[in-house]
Amino acid sequence: MKSAVETLNPTRVRLTVEVPFEELKASLDAAYKKINQQVTVKGFRQGKIPARVIDQRFGRGAVLEEAVNDALPKFYTEAVNEADLNPLGQPEVDITELKDGELLSFTAEVDIRPTLEIPDYSGIEVTVDAAEVTDEDIEKSLEQLRDRFATTSPVERAAAEGDIVTVDLEAKVDGEVLEDGVAKGVDYTIGSGQLLEGIDEAVTGLEAGGTATFTSELKGGSAEGKEAEVKVDVTAVKARELPALDDEFAQLASEFDTLEELRADSAKRLARMKKYDQATQAQEKVLDELIKLVEVPMPEKLLEDEVNTRKHNLEHHQLGQMGLDLAKYLEIQGKSAEEFDAELKEQAEKGIKTQFILDEIVNKEKLSVGQEELTEHLMRRAQSSGMSPDQFAQAVVEGGQVPMLVGEVARGKALASVVEVAKVLDTNGEVVDLDDEDETAETVEAATEVVEAAEGTEDKTEA
């Protein structure tokens, strides 16, 4: 077999392949065998029809077509390997010559991974938020904890913001009660904004037994988007009572004996969270700067496929789970279809560039992925997908996605290695030290999450 490569542009090549006819022998034998099993000829047992009879009855052309279809993938793969190419997606194959008993010639156009030059990235400098824990942060954390341990009790007074009211609702459109517009015994916290627009004003000031009506646009159901007249009957008013912030509360809400111990632990926990957020912010900003440094030719077909995949996943998975269609989503976001398409293309380009650049660094730095790192990554992905680790692992193996997961972790390690040599300052001008040996695995996994977000990998896997 002879092959030649013509570079059409930095991301696309045309392979020209010539195959001596004798190399088709195995595929021709397989073609005769396959046709033998599919046809019947009087006077011959199925599977025992001579080749010359098949040629006479069904035509040599049918056999050749079957043989070529069988052989093309093998010859294409051999040509790709011989030229040391990294193809992206499926090739466009055109048979240019087929001489029975002499020669098979074909061309294959395919997108390829571009060759990248990775410049010195040690000069990257980014600024991130300072990881400061204020007294206000600590008090807010304690208030959220108090809120989780709040109790409710009925009160005989008018409802006010923060109270929980039990209500019966009846919605009318054009004077008719909707079939799905009646609900009874609904608990609602005044001021939460989690029910209908206008209900807060309607129930505030009402005691148990009080009634009010208000107009609101329906957010779901058979009359979604229509203005409805809603009648609300308050059947009960309950006040929320927060526990006192003292040692007794600390013992109730935690393993600590005193409020001061609980406050100190909250400060430590918040510091860890802010440090993690700071590291993530650094990784995101360093990745953006790295992408600016590297010239990445963009394979147009790959970009088109990536845009379509992201749009499909958004429409048929993410929005579907929220009960929205694309038009409603764009309305909520306040975007036009053109703005949405432009943003999607920009995100897809960033995802492709991220993968190409970090893969190049993986190869350049000879980074590898250990079993422990892969297992930790698999556990996190399983958790985010709502599956058990065993179920997720089985789905990954059956779907042939193990190499993809390995690639994700490797790219996370590549990004972490770039961040390690970058200069990271906080908003106070202080140098941020992200090189904590005790948190190396956590840092790599955080970097992997940043890479996934840029590539849109997690959405595609779940879809």
Automatic annotation (TrEMBL):
GO-annotated biological processes: 'de novo' cotranslational protein folding; cell division; protein transport; protein unfolding
PROSITE patterns reported in the protein's UniProt record: FKBP_PPIASE
Annotated compartments: Cytoplasm
Keywords: Cell cycle, Cell division, Chaperone, Cytoplasm, Isomerase, Rotamase
Enzymatic reactions: [protein]-peptidylproline (omega=180) = [protein]-peptidylproline (omega=0)
Example of a GO MF term: peptidyl-prolyl cis-trans isomerase activity
InterPro entries membership: PPIase_dom_sf, PPIase_FKBP_dom, Trig_fac, Trigger_fac_C, Trigger_fac_C_sf, Trigger_fac_ribosome-bd_bac, Trigger_fac_ribosome-bd_sf, Trigger_fact/SurA_dom_sf
This enzyme's EC code(s): 5.2.1.8
Annotated Gene Ontology cellular component terms: cytoplasm
Superkingdom, natural source: Bacteria
Domain PPIase FKBP-type positions: 162-209
Family, per entry: Belongs to the FKBP-type PPIase family. Tig subfamily.
PANTHER family, sorted: TRIGGER FACTOR CHAPERONE AND PEPTIDYL-PROLYL CIS/TRANS ISOMERASE (PTHR30560), TRIGGER FACTOR-LIKE PROTEIN TIG, CHLOROPLASTIC (PTHR30560:SF3)
Domain characteristics, as noted in the entry: Consists of 3 domains; the N-terminus binds the ribosome, the middle domain has PPIase activity, while the C-terminus has intrinsic chaperone activity on its own.
Job of this protein: Involved in protein export. Acts as a chaperone by maintaining the newly synthesized protein in an open conformation. Functions as a peptidyl-prolyl cis-trans isomerase.
Identification of the protein by name: Trigger factor
Species: Streptomyces eurocidicus (Streptoverticillium eurocidicus)
Gene: tig
